[in-house]
């Protein structure tokens, strides 16, 4: 299998995320189930490539992004959410919000790169009807 390409994954992820209902579905996985959206997107990407992950591989993928998620993305999301609650008290809130969203997007892309780097160390099983997301979020 040739290595996965992070830019192709990014393009796939952006396209999938923008489809009707997908953003709400992914954020539901994140907010209600505590799942990582970028990992969900990678699992959908692997499905599209007809590659199945094992539970062990899934665990490795989760581990490779856990620290980055905890120390970079989650605090930024929390900051953005907090500022939204006090936006009327912040004179330049629209600009700050836009810059925080831009930073978050750059961090999301970096997290996807971490996932691709780890995935490229793995050997996936070809499987025509792969539904990797079920392994991660359940049925």
Mind explaining what this structure looks like?
InterPro entries: CHP02444. This is TIGR02444 family protein. With 139 residues, the protein is mostly helical. The chain has one domain. The chain is 72% helix and 3% strand. The chain has six helices and two strands, in the order αααβααβα. Strands 1-2 form a two-stranded antiparallel sheet. Helix 1 (6-17) crosses helix 3 and helix 4 runs antiparallel to helix 5. The longest helix has 31 residues, at 55-85. The chain is elongated and about 55 Å long. The relative contact order is 0.19.
Provide the low-confidence segments as ranges: none
- What is the domain tally? 1
Task: Please count the helical segments.
Answer: 6
Outline the biggest β-sheet. Answer: 2 strands, antiparallel
Q: Could you tell me the strand content as a percent range?
A: under 5%
How much helicity do the residues have?
over 70%
Compute the average pLDDT: 95
Order of SSEs: HHHEHHEH
Distance between the termini: 28 Å
**Total E-strand runs:** 2
Q: What structural category characterises the helix and strand content?
A: mainly alpha
Rg estimate, integer Å: 16 Å
User: What's the overall geometry?
Assistant: elongated
Q: What's the arrangement of strands in the largest beta sheet? A: 1-2
